[in-house]
Design brief:
The protein is built from 6 helices and 12 strands. By secondary structure, it is α+β, with helices and mostly antiparallel strands. The strands form 3 sheets. The protein has a 5-stranded mixed beta sheet with strand order 3-2-1-5-8, with helices on one face. The protein has a 5-stranded mixed beta sheet with strand order 4-10-9-6-7. A two-stranded antiparallel ribbon has the order 11-12. The chain is elongated, with a radius of gyration of 28 Å. Its cofactor is Cu cation. This is Cytochrome c oxidase subunit 2. It comes from Geodia barretti (Barrett's horny sponge).
Length: 316
């Protein structure tokens, strides 16, 4: 006769330690991707909808599991019991458990539809700041049109600057494959579909720098397709916008001059993909605009901090 072996104590200890480590991973205090720390009206309305659905699901779970546990204990087979009475359908019960889920679905559907339409329509469709977003493999292009001069559109990459407490209207497009625009603390995901413009609006209610990313698998470097949202005062935003619209400053430092010569030279061919405003040769459109790349907090699609320390010893 075979006997069951007791669980190995060491194995259980190792599994508990692994499980504890997984829990600790989720305890990062910065929570850059937490949707529970909403800092904008769109994210806050979506969080409120989440709680409605969560408590509806919790109610269903408690009722179903409660009935299941009660029935399992109440009607469990006891020694000497014969076969139970066989029931072949109960019309009242079947009607009941059809109507009850329908009521729950209505309870969930009404706030869902209201939230969808509220978030789909910008509260300021005409007067708000307009930014055109283009998804690329694997970086983000942000275009700030000039309402007074169509030829003065600011083109930048991987950093979205917006003024605090103001509506910002976004158009979303893709130049290649499906992408998904997601700023966890400010707004939920909206897809970028080739040859189909989508729109959304956002508002940041707290100043700061917020992590954002592509949330749709778009190829081998999808995990590195990040960007940053800088929410700042209107004065800071206007100053940034004016400085970004200007041409690149002509370098005077010998090392910077050498870098420019390499960038525009025939061997590196950087100019064939990238633009530097003010440069006659560097007018490429395939890669990000690098006119004021030195002012950005991050480069390489937001994955590397743009500081000297981060590049010491790095072969570019």
């Amino acid at each position: 006769m075979s006997t069951l072996k007791a669980p190995n104590g060491k194995l259980i200890s190792v599994l508990l330690l692994v499980f504890l480590g997984i829990l600790l991973i989720a305890c990062y205090p910065g929570n850059p991707q937490s949707t529970f720390d909403a800092t904008g009206p769109v994210a806050r309305s979506q969080l409120a909808l989440f709680w409605v659905i969560f408590w509806a699901a919790a109610f269903v779970f408690v009722v179903v599991e409660g009935v299941l546990v009660y029935a399992a204990f109440k009607y469990r087979r006891k020694p000497g019991d014969g076969d139970p009475h066989q029931t072949h359908g109960n019309t009242k019960l079947e009607i009941g458990w059809t109507i009850l889920p329908s009521i729950v679905l209505v309870f969930v559907a009404v706030p869902t539809v209201i939230t969808i339409f509220d978030n789909a329509n910008s509260p300021d469709p005409e007067g708000a700041l307009q930014v055109d977003v283009v998804g690329e493999q694997w970086w983000w292009e942000f275009n700030y049109p000039d309402p007074t001069d169509p030829d003065n559109t600011l083109v930048t990459a991987n950093e979205l600057h917006i003024p605090v407490d103001e509506v910002v209207n976004l158009t979303l497009d893709s130049n290649d494959v499906l992408h998904s625009f997601w700023i966890p603390k400010i707004a939920g995901k909206v897809d970028l579909v080739p040859n189909n413009l989508n729109t959304m609006w956002i508002m940041g209610e707290e100043e700061g720098t917020f992590f954002a990313q592509c949330a749709e698998f778009c190829g081998e470097s999808h995990a590195l397709m990040r960007f940053w949202v800088i929410v700042e005062t209107r004065e800071e935003f206007d100053a940034w916008l004016a400085s970004e619209r200007a041409d690149a400053i002509e370098p005077t430092d010998p090392l910077a001059q050498q870098g420019k010569a390499i960038f525009e030279g025939p061997q590196a061919q950087c100019w064939s993909c990238h633009t530097i405003k003010g440069s006659v040769r560097a007018q490429g459109k395939i890669g990000p605009d690098l006119t004021h790349v030195g002012r950005r907090t991050h480069i390489a699609s937001g994955i590397r901090e743009n500081t000297q320390e981060k590049f010491d010893g790095v072969d570019l």
